[in-house]
Amino acid sequence: MAPRATAYKRQTASKTSGNIKSSSPGQKTPPAPFSHAPDSLLPFLQSETSPLDRTKVYIAHLDRTPRDFKRNIFMVPLAQNILLAILLAWRLWVAAPMYMDWVLLVLGYPTSAYVDHTVKPNSQLAWTLVRRFANMAFDYGLFVVAVPWVKRFCFGTPASPLAWRWKVECRDEEVVFRVSRGSDAITLWEAYDSGQGEQENAVMAHKIMPAIDKYWMHERTGYQMIGKDWGLDFASMIRATELIDQGKMSLKSFEKTVLAYSDAHGWLAWQVHPLDEKVAEEEAREKIVQFKDRLTAMGKENLFFRWIELIQYESNRPGGFTAERQADAVDKAKGLFEDQGVDFEEFLRSIGGIQGVPGFEQTNTQPS
Questions:
Q1: Residue 159 contacts residue 235 (beta carbons within 8 Å)
Q2: Which of 143, 171, 254, 288 is most buried (most C-beta within 10 Å)?
Q3: What is the mean pLDDT of each successive set of 10 residues along the chain, which is 368 residues long?
Q4: Among 255, 258, 280, which residue's Cα sits nearest to residue 269?
Q5: What values do phi and psi take at 160, rounded to 5?
Q6: Rounded to whole angstroms, how far apart are CA atoms 240 and 254?
Q7: Closest CA to 257 of 240, 234, 281
Q8: Dihedral, CA atoms, 149, 231, 260, 59, nearest 10 degrees?
Q9: pTM over 0.85
Q10: Contact 111, 104 (CB under 8 A)
Q11: Are 284 and 361 contacting, i.e. CB atoms less than 8 angstroms apart?
């Protein structure tokens, strides 16, 4: 695991472990770090059309990876399913007459599938049997695996990946809802009720905490977060986007938050994003000091101040400090550094990369 991710986990644990308390059947307040869901989420949680399952744990967050990157990632499963659909259609076209002949043969009608065992040698009969069995095995495997795969992608209920992308399209900021694959909400509260803390609570320690890791999430778009413990709730993502587009909710309402339903307390939320912001502030301070100290040691302290001027200028331009402007700023900085004989890429590697430098927290920008 990367040192930065390890540090994040350590800081997260130090800020939450002291607040994690067990709950008892008569407890009136939710077990920390959970609290009652904020009012900003109620239009979604209490909506009659809310698709949430009360036995599941959910993780909501905003996916800010570039729009083109999201589109390219989605094109991979889209192409796979198109190819599978074409293969299924071709195989159905080719194999249907063969199976029809077999059915008619069983019903006693003469067909081209008939083999006269009295005139054919045993070797040919054996080969015919093997070939027909191989055809059946191939078709069975293809349709058992491929048909459900394509069906889930195109027509899954209550919503499919294709329906999600068709309705939401690709946006610079998207709501992502991950859903636990098991009935983890029940297990989560049972663990708290039994007095288990964060480290003993398997759902919290082994499923939720790794899934909300800031650096793990930073490297992935929402579609890349599907795994053995978490899937994507496409219906919730569609519904949340509809509420935002209708002006009934704000994008900010879906910043990184863990949601779970409790019979004792209703919908509970652990708002992780304020913790992320605090950690990011601490890391940004450390990074900027490291940035300056490294240049000072090289006798190039003036480059630090020119970098600051460049970033301030670019970030204050109308339209915000977009990913494109961040990339442009990096290229300009590269020129400034090279004018003074400093290898910009080597310098970035020496301080652990550009991630964490103020203004570049949400980008994977690298010098071109």
A1: yes
A2: 254
A3: 49 47 53 91 86 93 92 95 94 88 79 70 79 88 90 93 95 95 88 73 88 88 93 95 94 94 92 79 78 86 84 80 78 86 84 68 49
A4: 258
A5: -110, 160
A6: 9
A7: 240
A8: -140
A9: no
A10: yes
A11: yes
Q: Which two tokens stand for residue 323?
A: 């990913």
Residues 6+ apart with CB under 8 A from 175: 60, 62, 63, 237, 240, 241, 244, 251, 254
Q: Which two tokens stand for residue 162?
A: 């294709």
